[in-house]
């Protein structure tokens, strides 16, 4: 027997404009007015900016002004570079590059919604018919479940930071969600068009972050088709697999033909793919279970309940398909020898979809417990964000102000009326949502997660308005890069360096520094980065086999260890004169 018994009154869907506005309210804060932050966001922007200002070889071989970046894949950076070329003159390069993550996020959100809608209107997912009628129509039930899945997806803590960065992870999670949507279409229609779409999406996944994830997804879907839907098995082998290999195959072929910078990046890219597979270790398992609890909150409790509640309908597609995707990606997470958040991110779309099917079966007491937990925790977080901002502006409470300025010494807060009004309006909206939920006690399915997603959006919006200047101060290299630009001559000269990806990208963009290409150290200037605390230590320059004179040193005020030093080459005649 199906576990769902539901009246039609519980399936009122949110208006489309409200869903779209909610997505924009989620993604826009943190993209407007923010510098490229270290580490991953600045590095990703550096690759996009280098491509946008380079030639064909720069697009084929991703790098940050001469620093090779063979890991991951080029697709996300291609799209960001296109946005810079199209809109950089109008919005500035950093904001123009972030048009790509906005599109990535909207693609992922739409994929979650439409996948849940397709699965939710299937006959096996429908609630039991009531004795006197009044049960929801399949389309209404599917729309309501889709609304719930999207709200859960927006409420996932792990998605918050990664969806706002110029990184390939933001594209990968959206393509994983889109691949689940195309796979759902394939199992529903058994059509060649759906197989072509599924294959092309897997091919784009290869170009986003390697072939390990799309290969695992394909194998999982093949296993599912073998067990339950043999009609699509032939299309998976003859259509999906070749199309999945096509995009990456073209990229590899062109690289081998043109040999950008005298070599091909695909060898290092393949080596990076192989490093993602290893023997499961205790540390990997510990990392997964320690971080997945908060990373996938609040999706995982609802998802676990959904699998349990629908256990007697274990062959239903709305459970088996997202569960297959989830299982294959969890296996990859266990096999990955390096614990990193990037291995957890692709799990979120499937968890959100599964969680949506758990909403109709949850008891009222459990829903109320989740609501009260969300209200207390997120309201407390929002209160502390406001309190910290007040302390930063006025100096009261003194201890909170002291801690804020201790992290960012030298920071001078400025009051912005526009950001204050936006933050105040968002806070008022949160109070209204809480009042609506408590006073009216709506029976709609998505009531259990509206407070979780709304509170997450509120806290993020407050941070990205009230605290954005403070974040730029402690996470951006703009100020120190401009200091170096002042010291260097007006006519740009070659600068050798040991800077990492995020530092190199920030110094190249904000300081307009012309770094050496691919390790060439025959430059008149040398910019070194070290992590010593003392100001009197001298870095080892013997490996450069030249004489150098220190002409500038500095650091970001918020970083006590990281330090930068700029040297000028000293020739023999200069040495004698000095």
TrEMBL record:
Record localization: Cell membrane
GO molecular function terms listed in the Swiss-Prot or TrEMBL record: pentosyltransferase activity
Transmembrane regions: 73-92, 98-120, 141-161, 195-225, 232-254, 292-310, 317-336, 342-360, 372-391, 415-436, 448-470
Coiled coil stretches, renumbered: none
One of the record's GO cellular component terms: plasma membrane
InterPro entries given in the database record: LipidA_mod_glycosyltrf_83 (IPR050297)
Primary location class: membrane
KW NADP (keyword) present: no
GO aspect biological process, one term: lipopolysaccharide biosynthetic process
Membrane topology, from the record: Multi-pass membrane protein
Keyword tags: Cell membrane, Glycosyltransferase, Membrane, Transferase, Transmembrane, Transmembrane helix
The name this protein goes by in its record: 4-amino-4-deoxy-L-arabinose transferase-like glycosyltransferase
């Amino acid at each position: 027997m199906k576990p769902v018994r539901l009246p039609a009154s519980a399936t009122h869907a949110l208006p489309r404009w409200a869903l779209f506005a909610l997505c924009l309210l989620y993604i826009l804060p943190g993209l407007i007015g923010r510098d490229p932050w270290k580490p991953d966001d600045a590095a990703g922007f550096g690759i996009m900016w280098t491509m946008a200002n380079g030639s064909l070889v720069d697009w084929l071989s991703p790098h940050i002004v001469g620093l090779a970046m063979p890991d991951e894949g080029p697709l996300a950076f291609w799209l960001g570079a296109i946005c810079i070329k199209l809109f950089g003159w109008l919005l500035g390069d950093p904001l123009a590059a972030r048009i790509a993550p906005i599109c990535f996020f909207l693609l992922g959100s739409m994929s979650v919604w439409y996948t849940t809608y397709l699965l939710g209107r299937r006959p096996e997912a429908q609630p039991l018919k009531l004795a006197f009628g009044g049960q929801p129509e399949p389309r209404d039930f599917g729309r309501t479940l889709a609304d719930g899945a999207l709200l859960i997806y927006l409420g996932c803590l792990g998605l918050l930071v990664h969806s706002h960065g110029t990184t390939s992870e933001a594209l990968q999670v959206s393509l994983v969600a889109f691949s689940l949507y195309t796979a759902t279409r394939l199992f529903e229609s058994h059509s060649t068009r759906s197989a072509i779409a599924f294959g092309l999406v897997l091919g784009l996944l290869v170009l986003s972050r390697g072939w390990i994830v799309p290969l695992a997804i394909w194998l999982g879907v093949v296993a599912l088709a073998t067990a339950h839907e043999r009609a699509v098995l032939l299309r998976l082998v003859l259509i999906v697999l070749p199309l999945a290999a096509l995009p990456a195959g073209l990229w590899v072929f062109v690289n081998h033909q043109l040999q950008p910078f005298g070599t091909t990046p695909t060898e290092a890219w393949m080596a990076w793919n192989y490093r993602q597979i290893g023997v499961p270790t205790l540390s990997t398992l510990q990392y997964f279970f320690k971080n997945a609890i908060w990373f996938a909150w609040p999706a995982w409790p609802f998802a676990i309940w959904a699998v349990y509640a629908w256990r007697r309908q274990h062959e239903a597609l709305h459970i088996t398909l997202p569960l297959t995707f989830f299982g294959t990606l969890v296996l990859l997470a266990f096999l990955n020898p390096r614990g990193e958040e990037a291995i957890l991110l692709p799990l979120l779309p499937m968890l959100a979809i599964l969680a949506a099917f758990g909403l109709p079966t949850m008891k009222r007491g459990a829903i109320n417990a989740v609501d009260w937990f969300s209200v207390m925790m997120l309201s407390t977080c929002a209160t502390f964000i406001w309190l910290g901002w007040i302390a930063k502006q006025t100096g009261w409470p003194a201890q909170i102000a002291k801690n804020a300025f201790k992290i960012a010494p030298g920071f001078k807060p400025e009051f912005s009326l526009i950001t204050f009004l936006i933050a105040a309006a968002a806070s008022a909206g949160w109070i209204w949502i809480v009042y609506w939920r408590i006073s009216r006690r709506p029976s709609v399915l998505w009531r259990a997660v509206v407070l979780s997603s709304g509170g997450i959006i509120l806290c993020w919006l407050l941070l990205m308005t009230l605290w954005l200047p403070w974040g730029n101060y402690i996470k951006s290299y703009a100020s120190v890069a401009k200091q170096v630009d002042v010291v260097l001559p007006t006519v740009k000269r070659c600068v050798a360096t040991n800077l990492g990806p995020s530092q190199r990208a920030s110094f190249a963009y904000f300081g307009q520094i012309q770094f050496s290409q691919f390790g060439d150290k025959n430059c008149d200037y040398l910019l070194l980065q070290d992590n010593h605390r003392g100001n009197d230590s001298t870095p080892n320059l013997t490996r450069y086999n030249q004489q150098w004179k220190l002409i500038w040193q500095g650091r970001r005020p918020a970083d006590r260890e990281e330090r930068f030093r700029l040297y000028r080459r000293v020739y023999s005649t200069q040495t004698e004169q000095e």
